[in-house]
C-alpha cells in the first residue's frame, strides 16, 4: 500500500444503483492511500454491493433511504469520517487517479475543489454538443448572478473539507446537487479552486441523465437560490488549481 501523502484523512463517496459491472473498474483507479470508501447503494437489484465489497476490502456500505443522486450523496456525506470528502461517480466517468490533484488543492489552501472539463488539461469523452451548450449557458448565468468565475457548473467531481458541510446546508435529491453545492460554496465565501479533470464515457449501461429534464432542474436551482436572498460574499475565490 502506498504511504498516505497527505496529513488529512480522505473519504470517497460513491453513489451507485445497479453498477455491478462498472464498480471493479472504478475501484481499480482509487489510490491505495484513501482512508475510507463509502458506497451509497440506491437499493440495487443486481450484485452492486457484493461486487463492491469484493473489489474494495474495508468498504463501508450505506443503504439509501430515499431516491436520487442528491439524496445518495447527502447520506454518504453524513456518514463520512474523513477530514476531506471526495465524490465520484460509479459509472467509470470520473477517474479516481485524479483524487490526488483534488486533495492537494485543498491541502494547499482551498476550501472547495471542483472539477472542470473545460479548464486547460481537462476534457470529456462523453459531452454531446447540446449538453455542452446547455452547460455553458447555465455556467454563464451562474457567474452573472453570483459573481463566480466557473468554467464548468454541471460536473460531479468535487472535493471539500468535511468541516464545511454545515455551510453547504445541502437539501436536494436530484442531479442538480452539483449546482447547489457550487452555488452555496460561493454564497458561503469558501475559497474555491477549479481542478482540470477528464471525463470518460460510461463503461457499461445507460445513463439516467436527461438533458432537458435535468437542465431545467439546474436552472430552477440557480434562480431559486438567488431568490432566497442569501448574501453573496465577494470574497468567494475561483481560480484554476496549479
From TrEMBL:
Specify the Glycosyltransferase 2-like domain's residue ranges: 11-158
On whether Transferase is a keyword of this UniProt record, the answer is yes
Single GO molecular function = transferase activity
Q: Which UniProt keywords apply?
A: Transferase
Which InterPro entries does this entry report, sorted A to Z? Glyco_trans_2-like, Glycosyltransferase_2, Nucleotide-diphossugar_trans
Q: Which Pfam families match?
A: Glycos_transf_2
The UniProt entry's sequence similarity note says: Belongs to the glycosyltransferase 2 family.
Q: What is this protein called?
A: Glycosyltransferase family 2 protein
Which species?
Nonomuraea longispora
Amino acid at each position: 500500500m502506498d504511504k498516505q501523502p497527505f496529513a488529512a484523512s480522505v473519504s470517497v463517496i460513491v453513489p451507485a444503483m445497479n453498477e455491478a459491472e462498472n464498480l471493479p473498474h472504478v475501484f481499480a483507479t482509487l489510490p491505495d492511500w484513501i482512508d475510507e470508501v463509502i458506497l451509497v447503494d440506491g437499493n440495487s437489484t443486481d450484485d452492486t454491493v457484493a461486487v463492491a465489497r469484493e473489489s474494495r476490502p474495508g468498504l463501508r456500505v450505506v443503504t439509501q433511504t430515499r431516491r436520487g443522486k442528491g439524496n445518495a450523496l447527502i447520506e454518504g456525506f453524513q456518514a463520512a469520517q474523513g477530514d476531506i470528502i471526495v465524490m465520484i461517480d460509479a459509472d467509470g466517468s470520473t477517474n479516481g487517479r485524479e483524487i490526488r490533484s483534488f486533495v492537494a488543492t485543498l491541502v494547499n489552501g482551498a476550501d472547495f475543489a471542483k472539477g472542470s472539463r473545460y479548464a486547460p488539461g481537462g476534457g470529456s469523452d462523453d459531452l454531446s454538443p447540446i449538453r455542452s451548450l446547455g452547460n455553458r449557458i447555465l455556467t454563464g448565468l451562474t457567474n452573472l448572478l453570483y459573481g463566480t468565475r466557473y468554467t464548468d457548473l454541471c460536473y460531479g467531481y468535487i472535493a471539500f473539507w468535511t468541516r464545511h458541510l454545515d455551510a453547504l446546508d445541502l437539501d436536494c435529491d436530484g442531479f442538480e446537487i452539483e449546482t447547489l453545492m457550487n452555488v452555496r460554496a460561493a454564497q458561503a465565501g469558501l475559497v474555491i479552486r477549479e481542478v482540470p479533470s477528464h471525463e470518460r464515457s460510461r463503461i457499461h449501461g445507460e445513463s439516467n441523465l436527461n438533458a432537458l429534464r435535468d437542465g431545467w432542474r439546474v436552472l430552477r436551482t440557480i434562480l431559486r437560490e438567488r431568490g432566497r436572498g442569501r448574501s453573496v460574499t465577494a470574497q468567494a475565490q475561483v481560480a484554476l488549481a496549479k
